[in-house]
Design a protein that fits this description.
Elements: H1 3-7, E1 14-23, H2 29-52, E2 57-67, E3 78-80, E4 84-86, H3 90-98, H4 112-120, E5 130-138, H5 164-171, E6 186-192, H6 198-204, E7 209-213, H7 222-234
Parallel strand pairs: 1-2, 1-5, 5-6, 6-7
Antiparallel strand pairs: 2-3, 2-4
Helix pairs in contact: 2-7
Length: 236
């Protein structure tokens, strides 16, 4: 039993899974350092906010999916971890995040939707009293439409939907029979430009989604990260 559970024995046990989808293309070079720094302190800041609200995270797992562009170099278009338990696996998490290098990307759109599809289909926690499953996307670019770039590459992920409609079906909606995520647990946070598919196709159409507009070459402001943290904490 973890120390957090022991300290808050008798209270509800909260399981929080967070998947960070991080654009690691060359255009992110000016801001990737700030995004990495935010990722490294994400769990600590969330834990502190939860404790101020009188809640404890009994189990916290983070997963990172870094994406580039299958149309540019399929060999490194996706770099990812499985879910890592924090703080126990913090060194492994930090090694992966610190090892990310902003490079490649080719044209302007990137393979962000493939990363989002992988995130949606993560092996989410199903136990404990209450759960929150959060996907956070960091990018400064639009995304290639699914099924159009790199789909024949050997490294292209299996079972990724080939259309936005299919991806939306996996995300699901109230009373959906095809969703792969738990409706009451899921949240999607987009730090992405006011371009498609982020603005209307996802930001305005998908439920339980929060969109923070980004611009190329500009990082995540502290107040925006604080709002992301508060949004997650308040939803538990």
């Amino acid at each position: 039993m973890s120390g957090a559970v022991e300290r808050y024995q008798g209270n509800l046990r909260y399981a929080v899974d967070i998947v960070l989808c991080v654009d690691a293309t060359g255009s992110m070079n000016p801001v990737l350092g700030a995004v990495k720094e935010s990722a490294l302190h994400f769990h600590q800041r969330l834990t502190e906010v939860m404790e101020r609200k009188g809640k404890a995270i009994s189990q916290l797992r983070l997963r990172v999916i870094a994406f580039r562009d299958f149309g540019d170099d399929p060999s490194d278009a996706i770099e990812q971890t499985g879910f890592l338990h924090l703080p126990e696996q913090a060194p492994e998490f930090e090694r992966f995040v610190q090892g990310l290098v902003a490079q490649g990307g080719g044209d302007v759109p990137e393979s962000a939707l493939e990363a989002l599809a992988l995130a949606i289909n993560s092996p989410w926690e199903k136990g404990l009293d209450r759960r929150r499953h959060v996907i956070v996307v960091f990018t400064d670019a639009p995304a290639h439409p699914l099924g159009t770039v790199g789909v024949t590459a050997q490294t292209y992920p299996k079972d990724v939907p080939h259309t936005m409609d299919e991806l939306f079906e996996q995300w699901g909606y109230a009373r959906s029979q095809t969703a792969v995520m738990e409706q009451s647990a899921k949240r999607l946070v987009l730090f992405a430009p006011d371009e498609e598919p982020w603005q209307e196709a996802i930001g305005e159409e998908w439920d339980l989604t929060l969109h923070f507009p980004s611009r190329a070459g500009e990082g995540l402001e502290e107040f925006e990260m604080d709002e992301i943290i508060e949004t997650i904490a308040n939803s538990l």
